Amino acid sequence: MDKKEAKFVLSAYRPNGKDAGDSQISAALELVNCDPDLKKWFESEVKQDQMITDKLKELRPPSGLRTQILAGMKVVESPPWWRRSSIMALAASLIVVFGLIFSWNRPSYDSEFAEFRASAVSYAAGFISLDYFADDLSTLAGWLKEKDAPAVTDLAGKLESMPGIGCRTMSWHGKTISLICLQGDTVYHVFMVDRDEVSDLPESDEPQFWEMKRRTVVSWKDSERVYIMVTKASADEVRTFL
Amino acid sequence: MSPPSFQSLVDTYYESLFRFGQSLAGNASDAADLTQQTFFIWAKKGHALRDVAKAKSWLFTTLYREFLKQNRRSQRIDYRENDEIERTAPPTEPTWLETIDATLVVETLSNLNETFRVPLTLFYLEDSSYKEIAEILKIPLGTVMSRLSRGKQQLRHLLRDAIETRRNNIIPLPRVERQSHG
Predict the structure, then answer these.
(1) pLDDT tens, residue by residue, B131-155
(2) Domain containing A44: what range?
(3) Do the domain assignments include residue B146?
(4) A103 vs A39, higher pLDDT
(5) Boundary residue ending a domain (A13, A36, A57)
């Protein structure tokens, strides 16, 4: 390490000295001890940093901020689904109880679509945590739109009339995915992504069926989005309304 | 490691988060909103964090993301180009800094290009090492060092300018002739 490099590294040295144990910084500090010019520069740097740090720490939050944050927590701690019907609460509990550990990222697959499908199935088979709860599909869609996430405009067939459980957004390889969970005779998990975000889509416009992890998996697409639905309902049941 | 309680997290980080927010937003009101929003998100989603040791990074990252989101909405992102300043870095004599105050530091930080302002603020708050800053901002370690190095030069230069401007704007009080009582 030369003097220039040492200066570069030492720019990350906090005046409180907490970085002294870092391997890169300690190597630069060794050089400081052997070079009087570098030492003078370093001492001046630390002094200037300390002054700015001290000034910044003089800033005090408004007096009520802590109380407001803690009070806000009490509101958050009352999850909206507690107010839901017992059936919805039971459905949500079942998702949690029977869920496995979620792993969204998976090894590579033959195609991006196949990977998306496999990720959706793994997620639906695992522990599902939703961000927002509502019965009404349009309310869920509105929430997703607010989050700039793919939002459903119309779901296929009978799905549209099913009551919602809730929804969430998630990131998959940097792409935004929406998930809406619906309550029919069983739970239906519908994953949505913008159509141009996933390549290698099935050519057919008809719904495609698979069985994966003892679940029925269906994909379909419209002009804007690709949908993957994962459910414990049988393929025959799904065919009756999709 | 057991997850930290909500209150202990608030007590440990709310002041630093507020300061970080103030240097990003440039005012206390937005900073308070950002801080509240950050803890609100934690209350809703924090349980999903598998490594509780990363709670601090998570909070700072979340506040920064919220700031970016709000800025995107109001189109307030200000990309001032300060690169010219680096060519004429101020001398490293620290005494001139003794005249600054907290407001001036925040004002000057908020005039700095965001690229430098964010890592620099995290650095000066001293809560995060350069490795943690890299994690919060999702940038390589070398980039953090580079931004700190360049950002410090820019900040000091801007601070000197600000001090100079203040000096020039001082209007002297009229001289009052004292009369002695006989």
Answers:
(1) 999 989 888 888 889 899 989 988 9
(2) 3-57
(3) yes
(4) A39
(5) A57
Most confident of A149-153, A169-173, B73-77: A169-173
For residue range A75-86, what is the model confidence (pLDDT) as tens digits?
444 444 334 445
Residue A125 lies in a domain: yes
Asked if B9 has any chain A CB less than 8 Å from its own CB, the reply is no
Residues of B in contact with A76 (CB under 8 A): 40, 43-44
Query: What total of structural domains would you count in chain B?
Result: 2
Among the partner-chain residues A12, A69, A131, the one whose CB lies closest to the CB of B44 is: A131
Which chain A residues contact residue B18 at CB under 8 A? Answer: 59, 61, 65
- Among A12, A56, A66, whose Cβ lies nearest the Cβ of B14? A66
Residue B123's pLDDT is 94
Whether pLDDT at A96 is above 80: no
Residues B80 and B107 in one domain: no
Q: Which residue has the higher pLDDT, A94 or B53?
A: B53
Considering the domain boundaries, does residue B180 fall inside one?
no
Q: What is the DSSP string of chain B?
A: -PPPPHHHHHHHHHHHHHHHHHHHHSSHHHHHHHHHHHHHHHHHHGGG-S-GGGHHHHHHHHHHHHHHHHHHHHT-------GGGGGGPPPS-GGGGGG--HHHHHHHHHHS-HHHHHHHHHHHH-SS-HHHHHHHHT--HHHHHHHHHHHHHHHHHHHHHHHHHHHHHPPPPPP-------
A225 and A121 in a common domain = yes
Q: Which residue has the higher pLDDT, B13 or B110?
A: B13
- Domain membership of residue B182 (yes or no) is no
Task: Kindly state whether residues B98 and B78 are assigned to the same domain.
Answer: no
| Predicted pLDDT at B161 | 82
Quick check: A12 and B102 CB within 8 A? no
Measure CB to CB from residue A129 to each of B23, B48, B130 and give the nearest one.
B48
Please give the residue of chain A at the shortest CA–CA distance from B98.
A51
Confidence band of B56 (pLDDT split at 50, 70, 90)? confident
In a domain, B177, yes or no: no
Q: In the sheet that A225-231 helps form, which strands lie side by side, from edge to edge?
A: A132-133, A164-172, A175-183, A187-194, A225-231, A215-221, A208-212
Domain that holds residue B110: 90-170
